[in-house]
Amino acid sequence: MLIKKEVKKIFGVFFIFVIVLFSIYKVSALGIIPAIVEEEFSPGLEKTIIYKITEKDPNKEIKIYAEGELAQYVSFDKQKLIGGGKFSATLKLPEEIKKFGRQRIFIVAEEVIEQDEEVVSTVGTSVTIKGIIDINVPYSGKYLEIFLKSNDVNVGEPVNFELEIVSWGKEDVIAAPKIEIFSLPEQKLIETLQFKEREIKSRETIQLEKTLDTADYNAGNYRAIAILDYGEDEPAKAESDFRIGELVIDIIDYTKQIIIKDFQSFNIEIESKWNDKIDGVYAEVFIFDESKILADFKTSSAELIPWERKNITGFFDTNNFEEGFYNANMTLIYYGKDVGKSASKIVEVEFIKEKPKILLIIVVILAGFVILLLLLIITWILIKKYLKKDGKPKKSKK
């Protein structure tokens, strides 16, 4: 019976897996055209959009509906299709929309899953695809929104900034954006990049670029803050952090305690501070006391992508050690852009003897005894509450 149950479980899991794979395949069978429509808001705007739904199964039923904050302003000439086809969505906007900015409506086409009334439960997935209608609603006065992008670099390489400015207001704006560069974590202002003054028209989106020369910058973490003051109470702001790297690998962590028993592992967690791939890194480790080297070994080698953290591991014989603290000299050797470098760090490592298993057994037995004693005490308290003083059961209240 147990074998049959396990076989049924395996078959069930396999069946669900096949269904999921089939449903993933089917996603590509359903399509909607056009995928995105963008409209500028105007009071009482009315527009009809013709959509085409593609579906490989000619008998598949597809229901049509709208989602989003403005979905109530969309009507359809058809509520469903069989095997794909065309339908129209008519957009009738009100005289006013109080919320400004980009308002998104989703035109949804969803495959209908057929249900068998005689089956209690079925496994199935409903494939859904959505078209987008973006309604851009302007602000009554001046309103700017800005977005800032930057990139990580190595020392001496330029940082490229991309600044996007979107005017949501009905009024044109004349302004001069700037980008302030701060060091982290000190938040110390280092430099300001200034853009020329320019006119930003109502409902206009502009893309600006600026380059930061890092020749005089040290490796580290930085923050760029874009500021655009256009005469309102609060200027528009956006920020983006970036890193300036150098060909350095930091030792973040390492094995601090080792059990004295045959061969043991020694792990070193490392982190790249370089914005390029490091082709190879490994460590040479020497563990010694005041008089001599007791163990020396190399760890595994690894490649590091930019800014990656990774563990490298070595193995060594611990039988020469006594309990106590020893020094470990870890030397990292690594290569990047055909340049080889090394870095060393001396740390303290503790060696301990393996705790006897009998001690662990005693601890487990004692813990079990304490738990059993607590259960007995709780049971006794409950019995005392249930029984009367003469030992007879309490009569239940009617």
Which CATH architecture of the largest domain is right? Sandwich
How much β-strand is present in the residues?
over 45%
| Quaternary structure state of the chains depicted | single chain
Helix count?
2
Q: What does the main sheet amount to? A: 6 strands, mixed
- Let me know the average pLDDT: 87
Please tally the β strands and state the result. 28
Number of domains: 4
CATH superfamily of the largest domain: Immunoglobulins
Unreliable residue runs: 1-28, 119-123
- Rg result: 35 Å
Distance between the termini: 49 Å
> What order do the SSEs take from the amino end to the carboxyl end, as H and E?
HEEEEEEEEEEEEEEEEEEEEEEEEEEEEH
What is the CATH topology classification name of the largest domain? Immunoglobulin-like
Helix vs. strand class: mainly beta
Q: What is the helix content?
A: 10-25%
CATH C-level category of the largest domain:
Mainly Beta
> What overall form do the CA principal axes indicate?
extended
Main attributes of the structure:
single chain; 398 residues; Immunoglobulin-like; 4 domains; 6-stranded mixed β-sheet; 5-stranded mixed β-sheet; 50% strand
